[in-house]
Amino acid sequence: MKSSILAVALVFATLAPQTFAQNYPTKPLRMVVPFAPGGPTDLLARLVAQKLGENLGQQVIVDNRGGAGGTIGSENVARANPDGYTMLLGHIGIFAVNPTLYPKLAYDVQKDFAPVSLVADIPYGMVTHPALPAQTVTELIKLARSSPKQLLYGSGGSGGASHLAGAYFGMLAKIDITHVAYKGAGPALVDLLAGETSMMITGLTPLMPHISAGRLRLLAIGNQKRLTILPKVPTIGESLKGYEVTQWYGIAVPAQTPNEIIARLNKGITTLMAENDVREKLSAGGADPLTSTPEAFGKFIRTEIARWAPVVRAVSK
Which of 1, 29, 48, 80 gives a 20 to 30 Å CA spacing to 284? Predict the structure, then answer.
């Protein structure tokens, strides 16, 4: 009798996760953005959340949890219930830079997250306030050399991707520029528009309306090659050899999330990234839609951590 009961229990234990995954999702999901509203990560998250919600048949709520270079929001997801209802939309800074920048993180990027998929690659733009007397990257470098520490560049937070981009620029150009950290790219952009800072290197998407309106001057982009949509805009690398930074984004969930649920989310992301209106909206901001298998995204994260580790150590000295 006991053996029969045990056998039945084992059958139910086997079927329960499968049934759960088949019914998933049955309630709204939460997409954590580890930065303040208004920045490139937030803008991308709202587009992805809306479309992913339509594909899953449940609302996906964007939850901004900024601070500490994105580590607060990331830890929130790492410690969340691995039931597929909490996701992290992070970028190069969250997944590839922070593991080296913060040796004492309260979580392990490679152990506490389960990769779902890459979602986009957004070029970085180097923008300045129009009042700054520099029309090119070369002129900007000359200006910085003539006035050490006077050129202020904003970022979405210490250790974030835009901080790294600016610090890397200063390191390669051999100039002494001053970093001003904000609680997100959105607030940093507001102060740049007000002339409180001089420049910023960050994701191109939220910059485009201000560039078009003349409120910001786009000097160059961080890609290796010029963009098709901006063929006359040079790359930073054309003036500063070796410089290349782009901001890739991906979605992860807490470790131990069932594989069936990860596959369901991956399918939803792949479907939305194939939709014409999504691709058009991303392209309008200079972004390239991406997708990948969970396994490929995990391998990519490991590769990027290794690639950026020496750079992070160099700019953190």
Answer: 29
